[in-house]
Amino acid sequence: MSDGGKLRGLARLFSRFGPRQPAQGEAPGGPLPGEQRGPVLPTRALQKFLACLRSRSSPVLLDLGPVVGPNVSFFGERLGCKIYVEDVFADLDRYVRQGTLDAFPSFLYTRFRQPDATFDGILCWDLIDYVDRPGAQALARELTRVLRPEGALLGFFGTARFHEARYTKYVVVDEQNLEHRTYPAARGRQEVLLNRDIIRLFDGLRVSDSFLLKTHLREILFRKPGYLSK
């Protein structure tokens, strides 16, 4: 298939996923306005996340960030999975700019229309860092609800406060490395959560692995208790 055909296929694929549609002439998963290339840094939890999903037949994956073309290709090739992209970062920006942040937690309780136990894996990235406590509680509850028993959720949590209002777009290079690109955000990171606070947020899940990196990130892999029906 030609490159043009691949892009048209991606455009059809993502037309039903998130609220953000590519601008005219913009390839799905292409650079966001103001996006800056960043360093390639190690990840220790991604390989564990992939191992959890490789045991599933045709797993279903939820990605809470913007559409990232290389990530779609990576997970599709490694897992043969179906990917749903729900750009909650864009939702948060919209509520901040409208001055309606108080309504954001209520929105999150209705944001995910999928039935219970829909997804085998969830890529939460560092979204929790940008959400106030009530919103974080709503998000964690909903993600726990739509995760299947024995499913995996990968979350990143900052260990230092950065005041610059930019999001990080994590682009998978390989199973051990992510490129950290940044793009403008309507707000900066909020409070730094302690480990016990993170665990309390996701009290319906258990911590499978936790890695404290030199990049001021804590990577946590959660699993949902339970057994898949035979």
Describe the 3D structure:
The chain has 230 residues and is α/β, with parallel strands linked by helices. The chain has a single domain, classed as Vaccinia Virus protein VP39 (Rossmann fold), CATH 3.40.50. The protein has seven helices and nine strands; from the N terminus they run αβαβαβααβαβββαββ. A six-stranded mixed sheet has the order 3-2-4-5-9-8. The chain has a three-stranded antiparallel sheet with strand order 1-7-6. The longest helix has 14 residues.
Short structural summary:
The chain has 230 residues and is an alpha/beta fold. Helix content is 32%, strand content 27%.
Structure characteristics:
230 residues; alpha/beta; Rossmann fold; six-stranded mixed sheet; three-stranded antiparallel sheet; 7 helices; 32% helix; globular; disordered N terminus
Distance between the termini: 38 Å
Spatial order of the strands forming the largest sheet: 3-2-4-5-9-8
The tally of structural domains comes to 1
| Secondary structural class | alpha/beta
Number of strands: 9
The first-level CATH class is given as Alpha Beta
Give the name of the CATH superfamily: Vaccinia Virus protein VP39
Percent helix among the residues?
25-40%
Average the pLDDT over all residues and give the rounded result.
87
The appropriate CATH architecture is 3-Layer(aba) Sandwich
What is the molecular shape?
A: globular
How would the blueprint of this fold be written?
Elements: H1 3-14, E1 40-42, H2 45-54, E2 60-63, H3 69-79, E3 82-85, H4 88-98, H5 104-111, E4 119-125, H6 133-146, E5 147-158, E6 166-174, E7 177-184, H7 195-201, E8 206-212, E9 217-223
